[in-house]
Amino acid sequence: MxxxxxxxxxxxxxxxxxxxxxxxxxxxxxTYAQKLYEKTLLMMFEAPSLRTRxxxxxxxxxxxxxxxxxxxxxxxxxxxxxxxxxxxxxISQYCDIAAARIYSHQELKKLSRESSIxxxxxxxxxxxxxxxxxxxxxxxEKLNKLENLKIVYLxxxxxxxxxxxxxxxxxxxxxxxxxCPANKEYRPEKYVIDETKKLSxxxxxxxxxxxxxxxxxxxxxxxxxxxxxxxxxxKSQKQKRLKDLKNFQVNKKLFSVAKxxxxxxxxxxxxRGNEVSKEIxxxxxxxxxxxxxxxxxIQKAILLTLLGR
Length: 309
Ligand code: CP
Hints:
Elements: H1 12-27, E1 40-45, H2 51-62, E2 66-71, H3 84-91, E3 97-101, H4 105-114, E4 119-121, H5 129-143, E5 150-154, H6 160-171, E6 175-179, H7 190-203, E7 206-210, H8 213-217, E8 222-225, H9 238-245, H10 252-255, E9 263-266, H11 278-281, H12 288-306
Parallel strand pairs: 1-2, 1-3, 3-4, 5-6, 5-8, 6-7, 8-9
The structure holds phosphoric acid mono(formamide)ester.
């Protein structure tokens, strides 16, 4: 692996390797404490972040390296005065590894193409691979397996988290069901559906999309949702989205048809009362905070792997 851009670029073996490495690092952190001595990670942000930013920075600190936070809004690139190609060539001469949270996946691809250092996708409009790798680490810890699960995603499915989940479920032979409004605004884009169908065929995963949340949730092992108001959605759309998505809230009624052992996942930030009820996200079925904690361990596995340590 030279970069981490999309889960679609990975093999099942590479995917599992990162999860096993994170388990090992989490169990024996001291063994890895000097591994990135004098290494620098540049983190470039166009969009807000709590978990991704802090977990990558803490990961670098705990591995004895250094992380730089760079906000792209006021950068020459953000002001339209420099190409991403020139950014890539410049930063490659200062840093050992780069990570970017920018909306345009095409710009991220330019960054990785022109960089001589590894590049990590910290979220674009096409995917959020480090999030989903951390989520599968959490699934492995909680269920002691990664495959042959029924994983259900509910709500707004036209987003990066859903897209990376689709790809990861294909690689791990899971049955992934999306329940979202029939309206195009909330459905995954066709290119991702096509890409995932190909991956599912190759690796024996399954994917389906329905507008019936109860049918989707029946006998689920995992129920996953994400914010109905992702970072780039204007506030003016809030009332419409609450109305369109209200039948897709993860709540007690929905959980009553899932397996008794079913777990609730959310990448966070969450809004209680919108995409999930308080009793579910704060209930015993919720694993959202172990999920957030595992961002740290998987970031270490990603950094060490890409830097060949
Ligand atoms: N889940 C996630 O990526 O959180 P942040 O947006 O806070 O980084």
